[in-house]
Amino acid sequence: MKYAFPKEFWWGSASSAPQTEGETLSHGKSATVWDHWYSQQPTRFHNDVGPQDTSTFYKNWREDIALLKQLNHNTFRTSISWARLIPNGRGEVNQEAVTFYNQVIDEMLVQGVQPFINLFHFDMPMAMQEIGGWENRDVVQAYAKYADTCFELFGDRVKHWFTFNEPVVPVEGGYLYDFHYPNVVDFKRAATVAYHTMLAHSLAVKAYRARNTGGEIGIILNLTPSYPRSQNPADVKAANIADLMFNRSFLDPALRGEYPQELVELLKKYDQLPVCQQGDKELLQQGVVDLLGINYYQPRRIQCRDSMVNPESPFMPEWFFDNYVMPGRKMNPHRGWEIYEQGIYDILTNLRENYGNPRCFISENGMGVEHELRFEKDGRIDDDYRIEFVSGHLKWLHRALQEGSGCLGYHMWTFIDCWSWMNAYKNRYGFIQLDLETQKRTVKKSGEWFAAVSKNNGFD
Ligand code: BGP
């Protein structure tokens, strides 16, 4: 076989509670920021299809786990909903949620699918947001307690835990660029949210290790390689700042237990540093992960700014760089995102060369296709474009492995077409197509292809 993968390579896909469970305000679950926001502004993003309209994993879990097995997944990542397990964010545990997650975990294990469980996927309980969300250190403590409750309840069977999915996204969306609740635009508050998220992460890691359950704990980061437009020093410097702000602001604490000095100096210079308390530094050092999940979709192309910054304007990352559209770049023809398969190799090589080659895996990579149901023929979608996308990335991953990368697996985003934050069902990503009306699931051609790749542990 041309592309053979290591024995016990993790083949699977990823999803999240808020994007699949449905039953958003029933069975004891309270509102998250998404439920709240959609109830306030249902038409802001995409029709009125909100987080209540999903593949309803809460009801269809048994059928969906059977499909995981059918597609030869040996691993699968989803999340626990904090607002379902502990509806007020802290305090009483919802026993119906405990039963639900117990059933899901047990059924996955019966079917031979290792559960990878994430604790926070952009879904802050509204009760916690109302007291300030990540800006409030009490929420950091409440999260740590929630995490420890999960370890206590499910840690005997779940051996791969993640504290956060893409923690930079709620920072960018909620506090810089106005695409997540609470729609603040303020760099210093964004920096505080980012910092407190990593303190919460570290507390969870510490709590997990104290339980000694024999598993591992990590974090899932979306790493976007920042490629400079040219090797001219101004472009290189600009790309380096984008890398510091969007990648290394989470990657360095997660793998080295501290922030990059360059980033600290930069924020200090512009008076944007969050408030640090005694003991924070030591706590961050304890947050170094056992396992890193890497989400990769597309790179960032960066050039130096071609105009002066107005010093009166609010401080923003864009003070230091411009985004740049690279001529001739390969685009996803079905959605305006760049496709750059080599990015996966560059990320893994950077981790190997500069971060001690950590245990890691690709935790998301996938191709969103606008209005994909238009391609349905005889009841099925023959998504050759997705097969080409996934295999293209796997070839670069394979090359990184041959050069010694510690990458342990590949998870596609996503399993069954799911609800998405700003686009509802406009962009479909799944191995399995969903008829939202009837809830019927149909395996796409890519799903069958992936099942064979997993079974053969590689492809030609
Ligand atoms: C990642 C998220 C996922 C998922 C995916 C696709 O950032 O972890 O939750 O949504 O991106 O992005 P989108 O849904 O915006 O197309």
From TrEMBL:
The active site is at E364. PROSITE patterns: GLYCOSYL_HYDROL_F1_1. It comes from the Bacteria. InterPro entries: GH, Glyco_hydro_1, Glyco_hydro_1_AS. It holds the Pfam family Glyco_hydro_1. This is 6-phospho-beta-glucosidase. Belongs to the glycosyl hydrolase 1 family. It comes from Rahnella variigena. Gene3D superfamilies: Glycosidases (3.20.20.80).
